[in-house]
Predict the 3D structure of the following.
Amino acid sequence: MTHEDERAILIAENTRQREQIAELVAQTAALAARIQELEARLAKDSHHSSKPPSSDGLARKTKSLRRRSGKKPGGQLGHRGETLRLVATPDAVVEHRPRVCDACQGSLDDAPVVGHERRQVGGLPALRLVVQEPRALHVRCPHCQAVRVGAFPPEASSRAQYGPRLRAFAVYLVEQQFVPYGRVRELFADLFGASLSLGTLVTWVQQGAVVLDPGGSAAQGGAAPGAGAAQRRHRRASGWATGLGARGSGASTSRLTHYAIHAKRGAEATDAVGILPDFTGVSVHDGWKPYHWYTRCRHALCKIHHVRELTFLEEQYQQTWAKELKDLLREMKAAVEQARRAGLPQLPTAARGRSSPATRRCSPPGTLPIRPAAPAPPARTHQADPSAEPARTPVARPGRGAGLPRRLRDPL
């Protein structure tokens, strides 16, 4: 074998080894990214992700995202308070007259009153059912001798029933105070001696829904009686399972909440519910992908999800800019709340301008000292649960905003 043959063999071997090394480096990078993804998924819990608290288990200690306000406990200066005050006209006055003079032991029964002190005690009247008996009188006409019968009021449609105030109170307990049906029945039995069936309560709730919103338009974004059109709506999908293979979703305004159950969770369910397809206001949500398919409305991301993801980046990857950006979001929220308390329709221009330099300071550098991202997983044929979504690995990319989670980079 000549020297040239040996040299050619060594060159070929070197080339093959370089290819193997490059392949191993790529595999190592992919495995490292996969390990990072799995570690991030295991590290996520409800305090820095969209996972529900029920998924945390018993081992994790709860950690609130709230920060100390720096204020002392108790009422603050300027707080109006809830002091119980005297009313100008009490419902009843009870006079307590001394019977005997302490000085001479003389009787004071006929002594003149020269003044008084007053105190007031607020309480409840005796709780009992007040039964009203409507009677339709039969009256004979003195002219033609025909007998006419008076009409019963609408609330007296049968021989015996409960009145509208009691029915409204039951609906209030169920729908506004979220008291279970069984406990509402116990309450009415204990306080009023009224024996209500479960079917009766359900019927009252259904009747109340029809009376308050006959067409269902208010809960679905139309105009509620006297409320005007809903311009902002909060959405939450797949918040809970029914146990029957179906999922629940909710949409709410400042006054109304609409719940729906559907076997699916994506656009098919959203279309069937029929709220978001025709909504033209601002839809506030968690950035779930199917929401963005609806373009008639404007989309706003719920900032608590931003705070949770920034908390994850801060704790898992020790990114100081994430903490700075969280502080900025909180400052912006406090400024908006202060403007609302002052009765302003929007944040002043000067206050909005102050956030721009801070935003630039909080923007991360072009590269971050973290592992590269794993290859994109194959497309799934079904909608994944957002609470079980794999962690989004921050990718080292040049340019402003590198390393941000996708929902922080995407324009609204």
Observations:
- The two ends are 70 Å apart (CA to CA).
- The first strand starts at residue 138 and ends at 140.
- The first helix runs from residue 3 to 43.
